[in-house]
Amino acid sequence: MQTDRYSLFALLREAMRGNTGWKPAWRKATPAPTYDYVIVGGGGHGLATAYYLARRYGGKRIAVVEKGWIGGGNVGRNTTIVRSNYLLPGNEPFYECAMKLWEGLEQDINYNAMVSQRGVLNLFHNDAQRGAYIRRGNAMRLHGVDAELLDAQAVRAMVPFLNFDDARFPIRGGLLQRRGGTVRHDAVAWGYARAADRLGVDIIENCEVTVFALKAGGPWGWKPRAALLALASWGWPVRVIPHGWRPWRACACRLKAMCCRRLSAKGSSRLLTVW
Ligand SMILES: Cc1cc2nc3c(=O)[nH]c(=O)nc-3n(C[C@H](O)[C@H](O)[C@H](O)COP(=O)(O)OP(=O)(O)OC[C@H]3O[C@@H](n4cnc5c(N)ncnc54)[C@H](O)[C@@H]3O)c2cc1C
After folding, report:
1. Are 21 and 14 in contact (CB under 8 A)?
2. Which parts of the chain fold into alpha helices (H)?
3. Rounded to whole angstroms, how far apart are CA atoms 148 and 162?
């Protein structure tokens, strides 16, 4: 029997039998002819979108198309901080919602993403910064988010190894969010990929989307034929062109055709996505 659910019991069992029972975290999906949702980009955003779509709207056919490998985008090389210590009304509730997701995420997706709520402390070095942090802390608290203003003594008690005595910018205090901390973000991508895969999402790696050729006729003159396509490629350019432009006419066939043909050939890394 292969190990499916990660748990202490599974860990012990695999330790006893030489780790022969672990399954790949997600399938190498064979692209289906059509999908309800196609998400471009297998980073944190794309995979989370796929997972929550599948969980909330079960029965939909969903694919995530990734040009490289899962966890190889920005999600795999960031600073790993998680926090909701923002000032503006639009930001604060949004990031707090994300913080709450982090707090239950590992249980939810059954994956150790190394969420560590060790606290996030922003130091201030002068009165102007102190004023700004007081304002930010108050804004956080007005939104029900934890925020504490620490003086220099409290910061010293918390992180005694900092240079308090002869630093160029002396530490006067800091704004602390205790629930903030760190997460291994690429593990989050792997965890979402695994959880989405279990809900039937097809994760198609090494498959770059280069062009969308849109059908004419809808709003702005374009009318997509697929149900929905989400771009989660973090600013990487994917050209969107209206159907019928001469240089691209050759690409004007359906996503299903391109997916199946290109991928079944030999795991090609080029895919032209066409609606
Ligand atoms: C240096 C740095 C530090 C950061 N620090 C933090 C931090 O401490 N805390 C925090 O929360 N956030 C941080 N961020 C931001 C965070 O990493 C990003 O917001 C997050 O990773 C974005 O996720 P994403 O899924 O949108 O992008 P990505 O993780 O980059 O995923 C996009 C994916 O799309 C794929 N893709 C692109 N084009 C195509 C295409 N044409 N076809 C198919 N696939 C394609 C890419 O290969 C990639 O895998 C940091 C970012 C950077 C760069």
Report:
1. yes
2. 8-16, 44-56, 91-109, 127-142, 152-158, 185-198, 255-266
3. 19
What would the DSSP string read from start to end of 159-199?
-TTS--SS-SS---EEEEETT-EE--HHHHHHHHHHHHHHT
Domains and CATH numbers, the chain: 34-77+186-274 (3.50.50.60), 81-182 (3.30.9.10)
Alpha carbons 150 and 239: distance in angstroms, whole number: 49
Q: Please indicate whether residue 180, judged by its CB atom, sits closer than 6 Å to ligand 1.
A: no
149-156's contacts with Cβ under 8 Å and 24+ in sequence apart are: 149/173, 149/174, 149/175, 149/176, 150/121, 150/174, 150/175, 150/176, 155/121, 155/123
d(CA 239, CA 212): 6
How many A from CA of 192 to the centre of ligand 1?
Answer: 14
Kindly give the pairing relationship between strand 208-214 and strand 37-40: unpaired
- How confident is the chain (275 residues) per 10-residue block, as mean pLDDT? 80 95 92 86 93 90 93 91 93 93 95 96 97 97 96 97 91 97 94 96 89 51 44 54 39 31 33 36
pLDDT of the residue at 213: 53
Cα 112 from Cα 183, distance rounded (Å): 10
Nearest partner of 158 among 146, 141, 175, judged by Cα: 175
Strand, coil or helix: what is 71? coil
Ligand 1 binding pocket mutation candidate from 75, 105, 186, 259 (most atoms within 8 A of CB):
75
Residue nearest to atom 12 of ligand 1 (CA): 78
